[in-house]
Amino acid sequence: MAKAKSIFICQECGYESTGWLGKCPACNMWNTFVEELQERGQKAPGAAAADVKAVSINDIQVDTEERYPTGMKEMDRVLGGGIVKGSLILVGGDPGIGKSTLLLQVCQNIRHASKILYVSGEESIRQIKMRADRLGIKKPGLMLVSETNFKMIEKLIEGENPELVIIDSIQTIFDDGLTSAPGSVSQVRGVTSGLMRIAKGSGIAVMIVGHVTKEGALAGPRVLEHMVDTVLYFEGDRHLSYRVLRAVKNRFGSTNEIGIFEMRDTGLAEVDNPSMTMLSGRPEDVPGSVVISSIEGTRPMLVEIQALVCATNFGMPRRMATGIDYNRITLLMAVLEKRVGMQLGSYDAYVNVIGGLKLDEPACDLGIVTAIASSFREKAVDPGSVLVGEVGLTGEIRAVSQIEKRIMEAARIGFKSCIIPAGNAKMLDRSREIEGIRIKKVENVQQALEILL
Ligand code: TYD
Ligand code: MG
Q1: 28-81, pLDDT tens digit by residue?
Q2: What phi and psi values does residue 128 have, to the nearest 5 degrees?
Q3: Which of 89, 255, 317, 343 could be cross-linked to 247 through a Cys-Cys bond (beta carbons 3.0 to 4.6 Å apart)?
Q4: In angstroms, what is the span from residue 222 Cα to ligand 2's centroid?
Q5: Residue 64 contacts by C-beta under 8 Å, 6 or more apart in sequence?
Q6: Please, how many CA atoms are within 13 Å of residue 169, restricted to the half-sphere of its CB?
Q7: pLDDT tens across 216-274, in order?
Q8: Counting ligands in written order, which one lies closest to the CA of residue 245?
Q9: Are the C-beta atoms of 291 and 385 separated by less than 8 Å?
């Protein structure tokens, strides 16, 4: 019998230490270490070394149809065309954001997979059935089970032999061979590697739900990211109805694409026209609101950015950013101070991307700068204008990629003018009339603000 040894594991990132530490040296989080027992001399399960054989790349047969399209356009877009057979997909997100709902809907719509096993460790099968009824799900091949013991689940998968297994959620499943509590890093990792073995061994696709909590009560699925093939995050403001699905890792597709859903009382609906959705309810002729044209993956999207600049009450001015990198805001405000002469030092600034989107494209810079300046000067930007451009440290507006796509989207939605970097204008001369939208080119921030405000 191997001797049990106790080690301390960071519940946030999985860093291991022989003693308790207040702060994790790997992820810098405080108070995340938990003592866990570990069997010493554990051997990875698997075949003996003598059975292992390498195969020539030309001898490996791959089915031509190796993906199951999910039947949901937005989901397929993020996955890169559907669920790959034998792949392990982690769907992470805050509790209550809609992960279970999304996966139930995938079960209903998925093509070419006739048998699906939905394992819930959180709800009874009757509760799932009630939800499924509300969502209109009645796929006969969808088998439900409420179970948390991994050994039982493994047996069940073997017996049922489904094409797709859904585990909801990984934090509730435990392997009784491991001594630590369900939801701890070693359980979550142990169960995931077991599921990985099943997926790779039998070609069954496995989707795992993982809750992310900031409080650290449950092990963050971050520790699983390197183990699985695909990591999807389902995000959004729980108080708003929009949800964004994004891939942060995908061995079988691009990680640039995002899928947009709307949570309705009948479940998640796909949003076909995100620009229209993102702009609905936009206030017009109000200082601090601008529209930018951003590229999310391969598709252009118009998004509203709002800024509020107001006098600071306390000594230190506050800056807050939602959906945009905080450091980008401080940098762009510094450009405004230095290059435009706007004295923002005694003002608080709040910048918000509407609709729960995250923008990390430099092409949004001009929009951010203009929103801040517009709020500072209390002057509204023409609601028929769309802004595109990267702002450099000297205040210059730099060219951006895929300018035609961005302008075409603005024209399609009915905008009248588009402010673009002068560096992009040359390529556009020929298409200028076709668009039906006026193009204004700008060289630097001062010039842009003169036109806009
Ligand atoms: P759920 O899928 O249970 O979240 P998760 O699995 O990520 O914890 O979603 C729960 C939320 O979704 C809940 O607040 C109610 C809402 N919801 C709807 O608005 N409409 C619906 O049809 C369903 C099923 C849920
Ligand atoms: Mg759930």
Answers
A1: 888 888 877 765 544 555 555 567 888 888 888 776 568 899 999 999 999 999
A2: -65, -40
A3: 255
A4: 18
A5: none
A6: 23
A7: 444 555 678 888 999 998 988 777 788 989 898 999 888 888 899 999 988 999 998 88
A8: 1
A9: yes
